[in-house]
Design goal:
This protein has 110 residues and is an alpha+beta fold. The protein has one domain (2-78): 60s Ribosomal Protein L30, Chain: A. The chain is 28% helix and 19% strand. The protein has helices at 2-17, 39-47, 95-100, and strands at residues 26-33, 56-61, 72-78. The protein has a three-stranded mixed beta sheet, covered by helices on one side. Helix 1 (2-17) packs parallel to helix 2 (39-47). It is elongated and about 55 Å long.
Amino acid sequence: MTRQTNRVFEILGTILAAHDATLADAINIRTHLTDIGLIGDYATARARHLENPPPTSTTVEVSRLLMPGALVEVDLMATAPPAPAISPSPRVGTVGSCESSGVPVRGAQR
């Protein structure tokens, strides 16, 4: 459980970093464990990756996960800075130029 939990949070940290965020930006965590008896091991490993106070969280036990041998699955929601604005691409033509060239334009009034 500890090894899988550490790996999950490493992957989540990498994904967040690609969006200029960190695990400190987590606001909610949803965890699925295949054995609720291992929640102590999970909680100890998770605590190594999160700052205090930790985000809100829900942990549930499931009968199995999609990947064979997986003991833990984590869904994490985080805040991230807004993505930079993308400049619109320049227009190739305008409605007027299409109409004047004889190309029909749907919805254009004559």
